[in-house]
Amino acid sequence: MRIVVMLLAVIAACLSIWSLEAGRNGLTIGPFPIADGPPATLYEPQGQAAAPVVVIAHGFAGSRQLMEAYALTLSRAGYLVVSYDLTGHGRNPRPMTGDVTSIDGTTRLLVEEVRQVAKAALRHPRADGRLAYLGHSMASDIIIRAAADEPKPDAIVAISAFSLAVTEDFPANLLLVTGAWEDGLADAAQAMLRLADPTAALGQTVGDPAMGNGRRAVLAPGVEHVGVLYSAPAQQEAVEWLNATFGLQEKAEPAPRGLWIMLLLVAMAALAWPMARLLPKGPAQSRVGLRPFLWATGFPLLVVPLALAPLRTQVLPVLVADYLVLHFAAYGMLGLLALWRNGLLRGQFPPRVWPLAAAVAVFAIAVIGGMLDRYVASFLPNAGRLVIIAGLALGTVPYLVSDAILTEGGRAPLWRVLAARGGFLVSLMGAVALNFDRLMFLLIILPIILLFFVIFGTMAGWIGRRTGLPAIAGIGFGLLLAWALGVTFPLFA
């Protein structure tokens, strides 16, 4: 059975990688150097003909990789595409500065950065002088505001958009694409459409993009804020809008990258099961009684958000990272304290735990993280982020060690697993509710932590059941979680 699972996982992973790489066929993809500018990638279609330029900007806590589905589809449709890492994001080592809540603060700097990238892209030998912007979420407002000054784009594609800068006739040729499961942003898109025509409905085009006065708002079916980045109908809308604007006829069939990425993640997770069977077998993890379990889950849930609410710290150069470290550390240490008082930490850390935990961390970060960096989002940190990762590990490792022991190395009943991990998510949401203005950015990582629990929590169970030492997975995946969060949050001076 182990060999069969390993074989199927390898086949699924290879098929996914082959399909994802096939989307690059026919394109020249490489770094696009910009003097004193952000790291960028150029997607160049085959042939020598001049083409319109499309500059792509990602959303908050994103990176170039997250926008690659649009970059590949538009480039295959004949456009010269430049995608870049915004200040403070991805591989961009320059931290965000200014007031993130002010139009004259961080927003102004990001608007200037878009223009810098656009000017550099228009100097490319194959650029024909025409320009379009495409941006997601936060970047939708950035590209709309950038359209007010030179170089002025001929068209804008705003995905999951919200911007107070939109008027009845600005910006010209605006396409609004929103996921059907984004209710609030769907209402915002309809409101921006009706600035041009109060009677217009979603799916209707106002004006004519070929004449430079078009506006359209559509919903991508069955997707939300991230899924819209992989939606084939959304990509088709973008291509058709730009083709109508520039008079191009080429069409590119969007590749189902989202499905292949999910299959790749499942394959990598499935591969961990037979690999866990290669670890030395140990005795079953000791049971955690109901009373210590309730103390170790309920007490931190109630105490941590209240105890940390008055604290104000800013040591790590990342938004809310300081608080996140404290929350993880306090939650984990209180859980470990409850376990220690009941004698449940005895024998949990024999010498073999440390090399095995290191092996788990290396596999997760190097192999799985390498796949994520290639196909999903930036996972390779610059030097400035290593300190952030180390700081986050001071919190994530104690928390995940506590979680691994509480869930009995994968042997605990399902209700206990849900209670232990759900309790942490509830405590984090409680912290946001107590300090919304300061901690609202924590809401961004909730889906990341939930996905982490589903995928890596399953893998941790396989390791714990095999070795009888939950701390192996707790330490290894604690380092992985610190790494994932450390490369996700934007740098901020």
Automatic annotation (TrEMBL):
GO molecular function, one term: hydrolase activity
Top-level taxon in the UniProt lineage: Bacteria
Annotated ranges, domain Serine aminopeptidase S33: 51-162
Keywords: Hydrolase, Membrane, Transmembrane, Transmembrane helix
Listed Gene3D superfamilies: alpha/beta hydrolase
Membrane-spanning intervals of the chain: 259-280, 292-311, 323-341, 353-372, 384-402, 414-434, 440-464, 471-492
One protein family per Pfam: Hydrolase_4
Name under which the protein is recorded: Alpha/beta fold hydrolase
Source organism of this protein record: Fuscovulum ytuae
